[in-house]
C-alpha cells in the first residue's frame, strides 16, 4: 500500500487525527471524551470504503461486517439512550422478532443501505448526545427490569461496546485493504 503519510505505519499522521487525545479531568469529561474518541474511531475505520467493502463479511459463519457494525452501534445507541434512559416505547431499529441479529444479517452491498445506516447512526449519536447534555447528572437512574441503571453505567457500557467493536473493525479493515492500527 502506497501512502504519502509521514508515518505510514499509522492510520493517520498524528496532526491529522480528528480524535481529541488530550488528557481529561473529571468524570464527565473523561466518559464523554472516551465515547467520542471511539465513535470517531469507528468512522475512521470505515472511511473511504465502498458499499461492497463495507458489507464484506468476516469469516464464515460470522455475519460481521463494517456495515453491520455501523447498524449494530446505531441500534445500541437507540436502545440505551432512547428505549432505556428515556423510557420511550418505540420499535427497536435493526431488529425483528424473527431476527434478533438483523443489524448484521440484513447487510447488503448497496449504496442506499450504507447511506441509511450512516444516517441512522448519526441520528442516534446526536440523540444520545442531546439526552446526555440535558441530563441533570450522571446519577440519573431509570428502571431496567427489576434493577435500575444510572446514566454513568450506560456511558461506561457504551465505551466498552465501541472499544470492542473498534477492535473488530480493525481486523475487518485489515482484511479489506491491509490498513491497520491506531
UniProtKB/TrEMBL annotation:
The protein's name: DinB family protein
Compositional bias (Basic and acidic residues): 1-10
Gene3D superfamilies from the UniProt entry: dinb family like domain (1.20.120.450)
InterPro entries in the cross-refs: DinB/YfiT-like (IPR034660), MST-like (IPR007061)
Region (Disordered): 1-26
SUPFAM superfamilies, alphabetized: DinB/YfiT-like putative metalloenzymes (SSF109854)
Pfam family for this entry, one: MST
Amino acid at each position: 500500500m502506497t501512502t504519502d503519510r509521514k508515518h505510514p505505519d499509522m492510520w493517520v499522521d498524528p496532526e491529522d487525527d480528528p480524535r481529541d487525545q488530550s488528557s481529561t479531568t473529571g468524570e464527565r469529561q473523561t466518559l464523554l471524551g472516551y465515547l467520542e474518541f471511539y465513535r470517531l474511531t469507528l468512522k475512521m475505520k470505515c472511511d473511504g470504503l465502498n458499499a461492497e467493502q463495507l458489507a464484506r463479511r468476516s469469516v464464515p459463519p460470522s455475519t460481521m461486517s463494517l456495515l453491520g457494525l455501523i447498524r449494530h452501534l446505531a441500534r445500541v445507541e437507540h436502545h440505551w439512550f432512547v428505549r432505556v434512559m428515556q423510557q420511550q416505547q418505540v420499535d427497536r431499529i435493526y431488529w425483528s422478532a424473527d431476527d434478533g441479529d438483523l443489524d448484521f444479517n440484513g447487510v447488503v452491498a448497496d449504496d442506499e443501505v450504507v447511506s441509511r445506516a450512516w444516517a441512522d447512526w448519526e441520528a442516534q449519536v446526536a440523540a444520545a448526545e442531546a439526552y446526555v447534555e440535558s441530563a441533570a447528572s450522571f446519577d440519573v437512574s431509570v428502571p431496567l427490569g427489576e434493577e435500575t441503571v444510572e446514566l454513568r453505567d450506560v456511558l461506561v457500557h457504551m465505551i466498552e461496546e465501541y472499544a470492542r467493536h473498534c477492535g473488530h473493525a480493525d481486523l475487518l479493515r485489515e482484511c479489506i485493504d491491509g490498513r491497520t492500527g491506531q
